[in-house]
């Protein structure tokens, strides 16, 4: 089994580089004795350069990357530029970006481009709501198939799949708690889709869970949710809360 991974998604936070440095340094200090767990933080683009000097142990990630290497794409940042800056992970297809109009086809181009730039994509999939007819399995299946179209068998092991049921994310109005059972059945389903499409080696692709993860349920998701890591939004903006989750990941068997 590969190392557990805990990834912080800072979204469009915090307000200043000083706050970002304080938060990042706090985590860097806190993880000095963490050995079995990989820790990654995905800050807004413009903080990356400043944060990179503060820790070599925290892997830096981005929250998006455009496809292509260079060109006339006003406002965009390429995977290659991020890689050259020291970034190693990139979140792609987050539900908050899908809500702004990003489709599976765009995400597919970004995934292929990120892989060729040397980045590890964190592909977010997940349904907005659960229907009694279990249609949400089909939705996740098409997200996976369309977003991973044309990805090679060798590359699939570099992709991390984040199952994030949108109805459990902290910013979703009227959100509900997802359970480790919800995560487990989807993780089994995702492994099956990957294995049908890419063969048995795809079992090396890590599946992680995200959606209001806290110190209260992190251990349960890791032990019983069929996942090898966690994608943490709100709790990653608080050093104490984020460290609590990292320590749980480090110590749970
Ligand atoms: P949350 O965010 O932990 O605040 O629910 C997770 C995410 O959106 O990636």
TrEMBL record:
Protein's name according to its UniProt entry: Triosephosphate isomerase
Subcellular location: Cytoplasm
Subunit structure: Homodimer.
Biological or metabolic pathway of the protein: Carbohydrate biosynthesis; gluconeogenesis; Carbohydrate degradation; glycolysis; D-glyceraldehyde 3-phosphate from glycerone phosphate: step 1/1
Stored PANTHER family: TRIOSEPHOSPHATE ISOMERASE
Isomerase as UniProt keyword: yes
InterPro entries for the chain: Aldolase_TIM, TIM_sf, Triosephosphate_isomerase
């Amino acid at each position: 089994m590969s190392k557990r991974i805990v990834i912080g998604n800072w979204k469009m936070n915090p307000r200043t580089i000083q706050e970002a440095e304080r938060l990042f340094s706090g985590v860097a200090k806190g993880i000095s004795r963490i050995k079995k767990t990989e820790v990654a933080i995905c800050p807004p683009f413009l903080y990356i350069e400043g944060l990179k000097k503060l820790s070599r142990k925290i892997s830096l990630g981005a929250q998006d990357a455009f496809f292509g290497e260079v060109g006339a794409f006003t406002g965009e940042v390429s995977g290659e530029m991020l890689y050259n800056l020291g970034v190693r992970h990139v979140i792609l297809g987050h539900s908050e970006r899908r809500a702004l109009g990003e489709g599976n086809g765009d995400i597919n181009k970004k995934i292929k481009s990120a892989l060729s730039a040397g980045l590890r994509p964190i592909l977010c999939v997940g349904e907005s709501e659960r229907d009694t007819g279990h249609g949400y399995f089909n939705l996740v299946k098409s997200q996976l198939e369309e977003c991973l179209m044309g990805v090679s068998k060798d590359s699939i092991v570099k992709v991390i799949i984040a199952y994030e049921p949108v109805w459990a994310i902290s910013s979703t109005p009227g959100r509900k708690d997802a359970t480790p059972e919800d995560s487990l059945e989807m993780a089994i389903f995702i492994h099956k889709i990957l294995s049908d499409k890419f063969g048995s080696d795809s079992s090396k692709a890590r599946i992680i869970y995200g959606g209001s993860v806290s110190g209260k349920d992190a251990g349960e998701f890791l032990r019983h949710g069929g996942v090898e890591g966690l994608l943490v939004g709100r709790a990653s903006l608080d050093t104490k809360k984020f460290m609590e989750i990292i320590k749980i990941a480090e110590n749970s068997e």
